[in-house]
Amino acid sequence: MIQIYATILAFFILLMFLFSFYFDDDLLSPSKLFLILEFIRYVPGLFLLEEESSILFTEPLTFKLLIYEIIFIISTLVAIYLFMGKKINNKKVYKDIPMSSIFIFYFIGFLAKIIVFNKLGGVSNIMSNPQLAYQLQSHGFGIYNIFYKFMVIAILALTDKYLHYKKLNYLVILVLMVSFYVFSFLVYTNRTPALILFLILLFIYHFKVRKFKIYDAVNPRVLMVGLLIVFLSFSASQKRVQNSGTIETSRIFDIVRNLSYDGRDMFVYEKFSEEPKLYGRGYLNIIPSVIPGKIDKPPIDDGLYLVNYIRGYNVSINTNSNMLPSRTGSVPFSTPSYLYANFGILGIIVGGFVLGYIYILSYKYMQDYFDSFSISIYFYIIYSFGFSTGKLVPVLITIITTLVLKKIISLKIVIK
């Protein structure tokens, strides 16, 4: 019966995907990207897995997941289609950014990388023991991680510059900048930042150079790009063996499990159908998080609370980090499950509608300004935005940082 429910969900998402072409033919529009992500997060897991996040799939839980997921998809799509026709203000002007500013920004991020490499014993030491290096750079180097964003801003600015002037020297410098940025993360066996930058550049190519079409799926160049995405995605999901330079390659089931939200959603729908809802109390954790120097405060990552719930601990959503019974691992809420945990079925309906409005708003913003920065913001919202604090706060920080750094690097002179 679980396979039948999975087939129904797969067919429903496919039907909605085909229906979306009635409104637009953009393969990277909010409706199509949303449906693709929902398919990846729920359908393969139901077909290939028996459990996820230690939650065994059962027929009643799977049926409940199917119903709530369909309601969430419909609510989100209604908002997207309802607000799709909103007028665009059209602020498409090119702001020329001098190479000196681009080099300075990139050098700031480059210098931060060099300092971290040096503190970790050099590139050769990092490559010989990537697991230890990854753990060390993930803890205690937070201030340097902020400066890595300067490299991304420089790359986005240079991308716009190349697309405007079409000069070969700009392209060569851009390739070198992207290559070093990617290498600086691959050396830790950390492919996720490389994958994200690659996807952003893919979005920029789609919107500013040539839009992808369905028939491009048989194009050899597109197939090569697809293989690269699969490679980076596969590598990003690889497991690092503690205190070892070796990598345990995940099999296909492990990759599906890493991408799946099925089990955790089933657990949340069951738990909060019987217990009191959270009613937004998790958002109160944001307030103490901005207080510097305060150690005993609730975590922003609410996946720490969900992992405690799954392990049988009945903790408050506002419990301080050092008071949590289990402090290892994190199981992030999905957007529909977080909405349900807070406000029930009404939360899924209203929250899905609001999410669809945010998606289409970011799409219109991107079409309005139509530069690499606005395209990257659209990507971050579609790819990462959610209403749980663990998703909401990082995305807001990324968007605010991008907008602020864009202001800093940009000149006042505008070339129309």
From TrEMBL:
Residues making up the signal peptide according to the UniProt record: none
Claim: Ribosomal protein is one of the keywords in the record: no
Regions crossing the membrane: 5-23, 65-83, 103-121, 141-158, 170-188, 194-209, 339-362, 369-386
Keywords assigned by UniProt, alphabetized: Membrane, Transmembrane, Transmembrane helix
Name by which UniProt lists this protein: Oligosaccharide repeat unit polymerase
